[in-house]
Amino acid sequence: MGSITLPISLQVIVVGGGISGLSAAIALRRAGHHVTVYEKYSADADAGAGIVVGANAVKVLRQWGLDLEGAGMLKYKAGYILEGKTLERLDFVYGEGSHVNDEKSNGEPSYMATRSDLRSMLRREVERDAPGQGTIEIRYAMEVLDYDPEVPAVRFADEGWKAADWVVACDGIKSKAARIVSGGENPPKATGMSAFRMLIPDEKLAVVKEKFRQDHLIQEKFDKNNGTIWFVRGKDKQLVVWWTCRFGTIQAFDMLMPDNENYASSEDWTARCNKQVLLDEVGHWHPLFQEIFRAADEDPLLWKVCSRAPLDTLHKGKLSMLGDALHPMPPFRGQGGSQSIEDAGALEMIATYITDKADLPKRLEILDRVRVPRYSCAQIVSTIRQDEANMEERYIEVLNQCRKWFEGEDQSHLKSRAAFQQWLLSYDVREAAQRAVSTAT
Predict the structure, then answer these.
(1) Is the residue at 2 inside a domain?
(2) Is Flavoprotein among this UniProt entry's keywords (predicted)?
């Protein structure tokens, strides 16, 4: 009988302790590796507002045994476009019977959450004992200065170079790894839009709800059980996205506004601006929004919406990139965080049962084949707003740009908006990655 070759455990550095980095660490531990996560900020640092966790990402989290409802997430059941001045319903954009597929056809629901709740759920998973798997250690307040893709190694501001068998950069849109992997300067580009973001506890809005108690159209917006996201359209491409999260106790708002001289946004996800700036921006809207935003205790976060043309690889040498470091995208399709979790689902499968360090380059090529078409299409389609006129024509135009990643393959998912959305949301990335590894080996 021949001898059995056993898998080895690699020493892996993951840079970034956000949604992408924590997901990557969980994936690598599940694959049997020893992971050290280096996070720039302190352990208690947190920011960001709401997030939609798409059905494609939910599959990964469920397969990892995570309890989304227990973390306070609510099922996303329906989405409507409203007119900003009157709150009149203009279109139905998500849910059973709509032209965007629902839970039944996607295999899982999508969820409405706060970024903090999603990150906390991942943190709990990282910190739990995991017998029979690898290990995870997290170190905080570790600022990265540079990467070496060949050693591979990471240079930190306070502790110099640290080497490993593999480095995975999950350190966001300003990652220094992007220049190395892409082979040149490739900074994210501003889209001309900025996002004001707020989380407002439900009790802060009690006075607002009372003021409009006779208006049933307004009262339904606060219903904790309807699972609805409201896309409220204003003038000049203004868009407010509003949903309920955290067991129905928090109202999340993303206000997407064209850049103008009244405020200066940045790529810093912790930056805030004076609340009056936002109140001025929505001054012509229905009075409800003035009342809601005045009720908030904190000034809104203000983030410059940026994107980058898709990269044709996610690695160089033994340095890989995942999440926003790799594929920053506008928030219009709600896929930024979901693609980061998809990255991790694929990572787990390609990192499982590595028997020799020399196998890593081959595995990274497989990861490219699995991930590049997916995140590239998500980036391109994420330029389409929910409230665009001629939506179907816009989808066809954009989907035609995606065909180059599927030459000689089935392209039926690129024929229409509905077909693409089902391909996007019903996808099982772990199954696809496992199949790719089996085929290649």
Answers:
(1) no
(2) yes
- Residue 148 belongs to what domain range? 11-187+308-440
Distances (CA, A) of 281 to 34, 229, 242, 276: 49, 21, 16, 9
Final residue before a domain boundary, out of 274, 307, 340: 307
Give the total number of structural domains in the chain. Answer: 2
Q: What would the pLDDT profile of 152-205 be if each residue is shown by its tens digit?
A: 999 999 999 999 999 999 999 999 999 999 998 778 888 999 999 999 999 999
pTM of the model: 0.95
Q: How many residues does the chain have?
A: 441
Output phi, psi for 297, to 5 deg. -75, -35
Q: What is the CA radius of gyration of the chain?
A: 22
Residue % of the chain over a pLDDT of 90? 74
Task: Please tell me the distance from the alpha carbon of residue 363 to that of residue 373, in angstroms, as a whole number.
Answer: 17
DSSP readout, 338-351?
HHHHHHHHHHHHHT
Kindly state whether residue 5 falls inside one of the protein's structural domains. no
Confidence of residue 389 (pLDDT cuts 50, 70, 90): confident
User: 331 and 289 share a domain?
Assistant: no
Q: Which residues pair with 74 in a beta bridge?
A: 112
Query: Do 122 and 25 contact (CB within 8 A), yes or no?
Result: no
Same domain? For 96 and 183 the reply is: yes
* 232, part of any domain: yes
